Structure formats: C-alpha cells, structure tokens
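Friendly challenge for the regulars: who can give me the structure tokens for this chain first? No prize, just bragging rights.
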Amino acid sequence: MQISSFKDMYLAELQELASVEGQLAESLLQMAEVASHSALKETLVHHREQTEIQKERLLSLLQKHRADPTAHTDQAMQALIHETEKMMTMLKGNNLRDAGLIASAQKLKHYEIAAYGTAAALAGQLDLRDDQQTLHRSLEEEKQTDVLLTQLAKSDINPDAVAA
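First reply, four minutes later:
Bragging rights claimed.
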C-alpha cells in the first residue's frame, strides 16, 4: 500500500485501528476465560463489548470515507497478543496468571491509546471534527479501562499474587 497524501495516511490509521479492535475482541474473550478473579473476568468481558462498539465506529468512519476496512492487518497488535498468549502459558497459579493478564491487558490498552490519539490528531489536522470526536470518545473509553485495570491490580490482584 502506497500512501500519497495526508488523508491517505489518516485512512491508513483508521484501517490499522479497525484491525487492532478486531484482533483484540478475540483476545479479550480468551483472556476472560483464563481469568480466575471475578472482577477481572467481568472487566475483560465488558471491555470486549466496548471493543465491538469501537470497531463499529471505526467501520462507520471508514465507510464514510469509502476506505476498505480490511486493507491493513496490524502486525504490532498480532505480536502483543502473541506475547499475551505466551505469558499465560508461563504463569502458574491463578493469582499470578491474573496479575499477568492485567499487565498484558494494559500493554494492549496503551497501544490502543497511542493509536487512537494519533488518529484523532490526524482527524483534527484534516479538520474532520466529527471523526475527531468519535475517535476521542474511544480514546477516553480506553483510558478509563486502563484506570480500572490499574485499580484492580493495586487493590486485589497484585497483593494476592505477591502473597501466593
């Protein structure tokens, strides 16, 4: 894929994000199945539902700009998910695995936060205010999930993992 304009670059970012959200939706289900702590399981399932909504927003933006939503597969997200899967097989015991799930989920969140921030900034540069607002909504949801994961790690999961 060759990018010849700033708008093409923006659309490539949206395509990348659509790939990210699609891959993440599958991974979050697997992570929730492995989680033993009920609040962690619930957070992962809820975020999966949120991820589906975010993906639909991205598909809507791509459709509006007549861009192919399947034109790009995000390899960085593939690698992060692969590392998450590998970590889950390495960690023994429910408490330790749950702590590892949170650490992995936060790496995934931080990647999404960076991608949404970039796409929103590009939309702003192109004066696409509706797109920018849509992307900011998803960005804020990602940040809120990151905060929830941090609170869960600090209050319950990590102390249990340390004590185990």
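Residues 31 and 85 are 9 Å apart (CA to CA). The two ends are 50 Å apart (CA to CA). Your move, everyone else.
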